[in-house]
């Protein structure tokens, strides 16, 4: 089963959707799963130093402080029900996520899912700047990635440009929001849907694959 996941590392709904998907996979009894992570950078224009988070989100969403806090409370509650922490009070910066996606891309496949999760934890639980190379190098080192190699790869201009280009591709192919999941190139699910919805998508994609082989 091939699962393509389109996400951004500062998207709380992406973190919730990831948790729902992995909970669904824990229940699924089907074939071996291969996951491919694809960048969908939400805020291309954010500079390397980031923007102050609350004012940025106010302008982005067109909300008052009170309305923004209500939105945060709602998303936090949904996250708690899913089993993930979303500590918006700790987030001080709206960050550029290009480098975080670059780290995911260069991580060995066997640890890539764990790298994604630790990036989410760094931002949504610890309030760290995941656009900062030092934060990302520390995450890579936690998973036995070589520090010197990491620094070279995370400062490679061509590789960073490739991550940006990869983020544009889904927009040109009908994906306009995240998270978005595509199962076996045939079944698409948009949004942080429930575990049951994702289980049904897995089963449907597997069934379509069986039918295709019969024909």
Automatic annotation (TrEMBL):
What CDD domains does the record tag this protein with? DsbA_FrnE
Q: Which InterPro entries match?
A: DSBA-like_thioredoxin_dom, Thioredoxin-like_sf
Q: Which Gene3D superfamilies match?
A: Glutaredoxin
Q: Where is the DSBA-like thioredoxin domain?
A: 3-202
Short name of any one Pfam family annotated for the protein: DSBA
May I ask which residue range the UniProt record assigns to the signal sequence?
none
Question: What GO MF annotations does this protein's record show?
Answer: oxidoreductase activity
In terms of PANTHER family, this protein maps to: GLUTATHIONE S-TRANSFERASE KAPPA (PTHR13887), THIOREDOXIN SUPERFAMILY PROTEIN (PTHR13887:SF41)
Q: What is the designated name of this protein?
A: DsbA family oxidoreductase
User: Whose protein is this, by species?
Assistant: Umezakia ovalisporum FSS-62
